[in-house]
Amino acid sequence: MSSQINIYHSVHTALKMVAFTFDDGPNPQYTPEVLDIFNECNGKATFFMIGEKMKEYPDIVSDVVLKDHEIGNHTWSHPMLTQLNQEKCREELELTHSIIMELTGSTPAIFRPPFFDYNEEVNSVVMDFNYDVIGALNPDATDWEMPGVEHIISKSRNHIGNGSILLFHDGFGDRSQTVEAVRTLVQEVLSDGYQLVTISELLKSARK
């Protein structure tokens, strides 16, 4: 029997809430820069972290938690999960699940597959962790390709609305364009009356 795949790219809510999410960290340069942006406006964000990077930079993980942001599972080593057998897939999730609990004291509730590489076999493993699987509305922003600040802004701006989930990256390479784009987008959404919330806060608002 196949398991039903349910990936949240946005949530249905009447509230003006947007979730900014950041993949592939923690990173010693760019994660703190992102944290500063959200600290300045008292907004919250969600970080889908790679387990081996969490092990390398535990102090940054602690800082994310201290500032009340959310951490989600993004696997241990960022593989294409559909190319792994179920045992290896489970190991990728379990190792990161464990280090999140170890470093944060909390059980992760959300997961994002690397490269959005996902199928029924992967989903059957993920379901055992009771994760909500999180996508995003703006992969066309392609911030990981360094397409330019204005490209990242304009493509992301097109997807902003109640319940939007936006994807950015704070790890793997030069993320200076992402930081500058996010700085501008954060000010725009706040000016438009949106709250910046974590994924779990966004899901909770939709389930009331």
Spell out the helices and strands N to C.
Answer: EEHEHHEHEHEHEHEH
Number of helices: 8
Any low-confidence stretches, pLDDT <50, length ≥5? none
Multimeric state of these chains? single chain
The rounded distance between the terminal residues' Cα atoms is 31 Å
In what range is the share of β-strand residues?
5-15%
3D architecture notes:
The protein is of the alpha/beta class. It has a single domain, classed as TIM Barrel (Alpha-Beta Barrel). Helices cover 42% and strands 14% of the residues. The chain has 8 helices and 8 strands; from the N terminus they run ββαβααβαβαβαβαβα. The strands form 2 sheets. Strands 2, 3, 4, 7 and 8 form a 5-stranded parallel β-sheet that branches. Strands 1-6-5 form a 3-stranded parallel β-sheet, with no helix packed on it. It starts with 6 loop residues before the first strand and ends with a helix. Residues 16-197 form the NodB homology domain.
